[in-house]
Design the sequence.
């Protein structure tokens, strides 16, 4: 855990991580019967994954400057492969269509407070300014767009199918770009970003949850919404 940082930032990080988990769990609970049956399994798996990532961070596994970037690739690649398997297999696609889109969409709103957290962490020199909206991270714009489009998406997405697909593709690209910024700025031999102010937060508990827990959930929500929009054999509940 990073010292000399306001305790309020730790509290906010925990709240945002909890909110992301609750929102995704409700996408199961409020979805079709297929998703409802697996809601408790998902909640337990997510809890186990969060505890596992916390253990790795507290044991300084992500702080090794020789392999720090490689270690951080593990949760990113593992979660991304799992999401891709769900999206590109018939059984996985049916499962994603069973999730409630309104709760999946609500995860997009978290981009705004997360971007604000990166700004606050940058003021405390724990993330590079490139990770904020003053640098190379424009995810807060996408979060604002999600709020503006709330009356249209996802309730009226059938009328704006192409626009909704582009919306989710851009959302996926934004998360991938943040992954690139994180991997390029953590202290390591291969660091190329934020050389004067590395991304210490990504390798420390609990701020690493943004990369290992929250980002994968937001990415999964965009992928699920895109699958629902493109393969609408089963009309999802709202």
Sequence:
């Amino acid at each position: 855990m990073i010292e000399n940082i306001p305790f309020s930032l730790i509290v906010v990080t925990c709240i945002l991580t909890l909110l992301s988990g609750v929102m995704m769990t409700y996408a199961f609970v409020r979805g079709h019967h297929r998703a409802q049956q697996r809601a408790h399994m998902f909640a337990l798996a997510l809890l186990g994954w969060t505890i596992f990532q916390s253990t790795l961070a507290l044991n300084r596994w992500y702080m090794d400057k020789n392999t720090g970037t490689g270690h951080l690739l593990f949760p990113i690649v593992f979660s991304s492969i799992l999401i891709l398997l769900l999206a590109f297999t018939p059984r996985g696609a049916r499962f994603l269509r069973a999730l409630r889109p309104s709760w999946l969409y609500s995860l997009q709103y978290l981009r705004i407070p997360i971007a604000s957290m990166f700004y606050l962490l940058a003021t405390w020199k724990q993330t590079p300014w490139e990770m904020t909206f003053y640098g190379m991270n424009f995810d807060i714009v996408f979060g604002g767009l999600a709020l503006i489009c709330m009356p249209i998406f996802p309730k009226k997405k059938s009328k704006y199918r192409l626009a909704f697909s582009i919306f989710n593709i851009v959302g996926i690209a934004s998360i991938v770009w943040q992954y690139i910024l994180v991997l390029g700025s953590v202290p390591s031999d291969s660091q190329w970003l934020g050389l004067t102010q590395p991304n210490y937060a990504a390798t420390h508990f609990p701020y690493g949850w943004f990369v290992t827990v929250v980002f994968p959930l937001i990415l999964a929500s965009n992928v699920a919404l895109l699958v629902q929009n493109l393969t609408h054999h089963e009309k999802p509940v709202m």
